[in-house]
Amino acid sequence: MGSEFEELSNDADIISKIQQFREATIRIDDTIKLALNPATYETLSNTDKVEYNLLLSYCLNSMFWMYLRAEGTDPAKHRIRSENERLKKSMLRAKQINDRKTLMPRINKDAAQRFVRNGLWEIKKKDK
């Protein structure tokens, strides 16, 4: 009788995991539908579009990685690994470019004009 109980608990665990998996896939599907909305994409700046495209590519590759794992294939020996590494490098490069833009010194035009104006002084002549 103990083995029947173990089988029932194993079945309940499997059913629970399948339900969790189904709920996760529904959430992923909803997120992908939202992410692929063209109206949302058009409102993004060029920098945000680059980040969006890289993130979407990485997410899709990660989903394929999970698919391979579910099929029993070792993704570490699959081409997807090199593709994920390429995307990571691209993400790092995009971050470096974005950081360069934000860390680049900017000139405050008004302050520069004040410095120049105050730096150019003239000797006043005394009236005789």
From TrEMBL:
GO biological process, one term: regulation of gene expression
Residue ranges that the Swiss-Prot or TrEMBL entry lists as coiled coil: none
Keywords: Cytoplasm, DNA-binding, Nucleus, RNA-binding, rRNA processing
Pfam families xrefs: Sas10_Utp3
GO molecular function, one term: DNA binding
Principal cellular location given in the protein's record: cytoplasm
Protein localization: Cytoplasm; Nucleus, Nucleolus; Nucleus
InterPro entries: Exosome-assoc_fac/DNA_repair, Sas10/Utp3/C1D
Organism superkingdom: Eukaryota
One of the record's GO cellular component terms: cytoplasm
Assembly description: Monomer and homodimer.
Family per record: Belongs to the C1D family.
Function: Plays a role in the recruitment of the exosome to pre-rRNA to mediate the 3'-5' end processing of the 5.8S rRNA.
Protein name, as recorded: Nuclear nucleic acid-binding protein C1D
Lineage, top ranks: Eukaryota, Metazoa, Ecdysozoa, Arthropoda, Hexapoda
Gene assigned in the entry: LOC108632074
